[in-house]
Predict the 3D structure of the following.
Amino acid sequence: MAENFWQAKRVVVTGGSGFLGSFVVEKLKQRGAGDIFVPRSAQYDLRTSDGIRRMLQDARADMVIHLAALAGGIGANRARPAEFFYDNLMMGVPLLHAAWEQGVDKFVAVGSICSYPKFTPLPFKEEKLWDGYPEETNAPYGLAKKMLLVQAQAYRQQYGYNSIYLMPVNLFGPRDNFDLETSHVIPALIRKALEAQARGEKELPVWGDGSPTREFLYVEDAAEGILSAAEKYNGSEPVNLGSGNEISIKDLAGMICRHTGFEGKLIWQTDKPNGQPRRGLDVTRARDYFGWSAQVPFEQGIRRTIEWYKENRK
């Protein structure tokens, strides 16, 4: 039983007050975890060895679920590649090392689909992860997160340390980041469509030419996947977490316009980068290794996200 698994465990969730983290913490509570430690960046700067050391001493954790990341869309990645590399590397690698050193039983590293090579054949299979360089706009971020996989496997090989590595695809859902400077495509489009509609505008500019495809995973499904793996998976191989459904940016924008009520025209900004041409995951491993698959249909997730934003945008 999941309840029994978590009952006596002290769990650290880095990034536990963030978008994905807030759902992971909620679901941990539902599963009977009574001792959850969420470090706040104001108290513990996890980019520093002092911040990491103090956090682990204060938490006395049995398990670390590492979700904390500096993340954003193409614009943010292009503007701040050095920070995206350094902050993510320094929040991850020294933390895993310190967790092993301090005897934390299990480390759950949550990586990124941005680590895949730019031209990975579809659907992305985990064994293709090293077949090329990531898409340039988010390579510094993707490579920093990928180092955790190398480290997790090396520490398992040399020390027998139980660290696992999961790669969720692009997430969306309630509580997402709707700041137009740093948001990903779904919240950005929802906000732009609602604001254009409110102003009575007839046109909505969208980055790129609409041709790239993406796969999206509803945030609650992702949280379930992470906790299922934490409970049941103790292997060295990386595991994709995705929905297995691919959609073009063009179709996505059309769906968001339908559900927000925006009736104007989409203007494709073809001078802006498309990012990776296609993204779609093979999600067989997650099903085979720990019995997880996505449950929330995409369009239903989009509707829930729009409703949440309408109620919370003040």
Remarks:
- The first strand starts at residue 10 and ends at 14.
